[in-house]
Design a protein that fits this description.
This protein is globular. The strands form eight sheets. Strands 3, 7, 8, 9, 10, 11, 12, 21 and 24 form a nine-stranded mixed sheet that branches. It has a five-stranded mixed sheet with strand order 16-14-15-17-20. It folds into three domains: 256 residues, 2-Layer Sandwich (BirA Bifunctional Protein, domain 2); 129 residues, YbaK protein, CATH 3.90.960; 108 residues, 3-Layer(aba) Sandwich (Rossmann fold). With 573 residues, it is of the alpha+beta class. Helix 2 packs antiparallel against helix 5 and helix 2 packs across helix 10. It is built from 14 helices and 31 strands.
Length: 573
């Protein structure tokens, strides 16, 4: 491809709409253009990156035993009603009606439709295991699309679904996909970590891992341990109780605390440490109010709480709902004397010996409260967020925190969909059994954006060689110099013959403009054909990732560049 023919409209200024670096640079470098909120055109440079990511994904899926198909984007409501998700998936589901007023949705995911396909076409144990995948557009009606390709309404995703005879088969399919995902993101040249995760709206109870590209701009927060392999999303990370030796118990007392509602205010007013207070909250879980207790210096983990309560909808109660439980309202809630409502306590709460809690009346708190003596709870559980420096749940070493971008997730669905939708097979004895399922997704367009979030500098994108739109750009300093143009053309054609993705910048532009565009777009290798060609027979090679520059003779440049590319790709395979 010649730069003069390439449709890559670059921008010198950063568009006001762009919030994160990948959004800014993909717009500026001519990779994407906005169509509407959360919906983008992928221009030729982006399409080349996407195709390379898809090629890596296909190779790994096929090597693991996957078979590619393509499923409909438009899905009938009946299937979602059969699985039970039509009414609970939420407002992110694009819903529509056809001319006959039948309900459909645009697929945000394909568990229902793939389960229906398999149940109607697979009947025998001999046909299992089965792994089917597609690479296709998905649709989610985000309330506030943002961050460019990170959180859009239309995006490209690879989703594979496994169907096995039993849990042992699912475990093997899950292992294959876990290894395949590790290979995919390594081959893409990304720094990532697989972390334990919550299954979310996809569901299933058998376990899940997210694959996180490490980047400061990531929306997700993860904890990890350098001493072992443990890593988890903070929503999933297990917290070990950090209990200190308690002081001897004293009789409970009520004290006046006028205007003191927050943990910080109460602690200062009573001159106690927040670790000796109990934060009391009321949540509405579906149609039931529940009370939740955590230590005053901790944060509630709503994902853990939602999983513990096994509810579809969880929200913090309103002031009016808090007043239904306690006349003190939200600012003076406490567990002492509460009846008729379940109480769930974090594991650290019950170890306190002189706790401060709300008195369930305005302007008052109780001090020297002893759990199990002064109040009891329905259940104790790990309900809090983990903090950096806490012991690793596997080895005890201090955990660290980092931010990450989710680019893939693997789920053990078990029989969640096969049971509700009747997806069965006949075993060796002719008895009907439920298929055991897994699902595995890669955000293809998000992987492209994540690569930019992790690989950029002040001048633009720094693409990993394996997924760069072009691996090499050849830049003649002057298109009016016949010798330079002849050498640039020859190098360009030689690299093409060697199978290198190469671009020739044949534009009648100043050298500075060409160099700035090359850095902005992020070509891994730049070959500059300039004045040293005539005087010394040399051309300059510059590596985008580290800025290294060196001169090579015209005769050796092609083989050297091919070798550099091969070495770079080999490092990640």
């Amino acid at each position: 491809m010649r730069m003069s023919q390439l449709f890559a409209p670059t921008l010198r200024e950063t568009p006001a709409e762009a919030e994160v670096i990948s959004h800014q640079l993909l717009l500026r470098a001519g990779f994407i253009r906005r169509s509407s909120a959360g919906v983008y055109h992928y221009l030729p440079l982006a399409q080349r990156v996407l195709q390379k990511i898809m090629a890596i994904v296909r190779e790994e899926m096929n090597a693991a035993g996957g078979q590619e198909l393509l499923m409909p984007v438009i899905q009938p409501a009946e299937l979602w009603q059969e699985s039970g998700r039509w009414n609970v998936y939420g407002d992110e589901l694009f819903r529509l009606k056809d001319r006959h007023q039948r309900d459909f949705c645009l697929g945000p995911t394909h568990e229902e439709i793939i389960t229906d396909l398999v149940k109607n076409n697979v009947t025998s144990y001999r046909d299992l295991p089965l792994m089917l995948y597609q690479i296709a557009n998905k649709y989610r009606d985000e309330r506030r699309p943002r961050f460019g390709l990170m959180r859009g309404r239309e995006f490209i995703m690879k989703d594979l679904y496994s169907f096995d005879r039993d849990e042992a088969g699912l475990h093997e399919s899950y292992r294959k996909m876990y290894e395949a995902y590790t290979n995919i993101f390594r081959r893409c040249g990304l720094k990532f970590r697989p972390v334990e995760a919550d299954a979310g709206a996809i569901g299933g109870t058998g376990g899940s891992h997210e694959f996180m590209v490490l980047a400061e701009s990531g929306e997700a927060e993860i904890v990890y341990c350098d001493a072992c392999e443990y890593a988890a999303n903070v929503e999933k990370a297990e917290c070990k109780p950090q209990n200190q030796p308690g002081e001897p118990a004293l009789p409970m007392e009520k004290v006046s605390t006028p205007g003191q509602k927050s943990i910080e205010d109460v602690s200062k007013f009573l001159k106690v440490n927040p670790t000796d207070t109990i934060k009391t909250m009321i949540f509405r879980a579906d149609d039931q109010l529940v009370m939740v207790l955590i230590r005053g210096d901790r944060e509630i983990n709503e994902i853990k709480l939602k999983n513990k309560l096994d509810c579809l909808d969880l929200r913090l109660a309103s002031e009016a709902e808090c007043l239904e439980v306690s006349p003190g309202g939200a600012g003076y809630l406490g567990p002492v004397g509460i009846k008729g409502i379940p109480i769930y306590a974090d594991l650290e709460v019950m170890a306190l010996t002189r706790a401060v809690v709300g008195a369930n009346e305005p302007e008052a708190h109780l001090i020297q409260v002893l759990p199990n003596r002064d109040f009891s709870v329905t259940e104790e559980a790990d309900l809090r967020m983990i903090h950096a420096g806490e012991p690793c749940p596997q080895c005890g070493a201090p955990v660290k925190k980092a931010r990450g971008i989710e680019v893939g997730q693997v789920f053990k669905l078990g029989t969640k969909y096969s049971k509700s939708m009747g997806c069965t097979y006949l075993d060796e004895k002719g008895q009907e059994q439920l298929m055991v399922m897994g699902c595995y997704g890669v955000g293809v367009s998000r992987t492209m954006a994540s690569a930019v979030e992790q690989n950029y500098d002040a001048n633009g994108i720094v693409w990993p060689v394996a997924i760069a739109p072009y691996q090499v750009v050849v830049v003649p300093v002057s298109n009016k110099d016949a010798a330079q143009m002849e050498a640039a053309e020859a190098i360009y054609k030689e690299l093409q013959q060697k199978g290198v993705d190469v671009l020739l910048d044949d534009r009648a532009e100043r050298p500075g403009v060409k160099f700035k565009d090359a850095d902005l777009i992020g070509f891994p290798i730049r070959i500059t054909v300039g004045n040293k060609l005539a005087s010394e027979g040399l051309v300059e090679v510059k590596l985008r990732n580290n800025g290294d520059q060196f001169n090579l003779s015209r005769g050796e440049v092609t083989e050297k560049v091919v070798s550099l590319i091969q070495q770079s790709v080999a490092q990640n395979t």
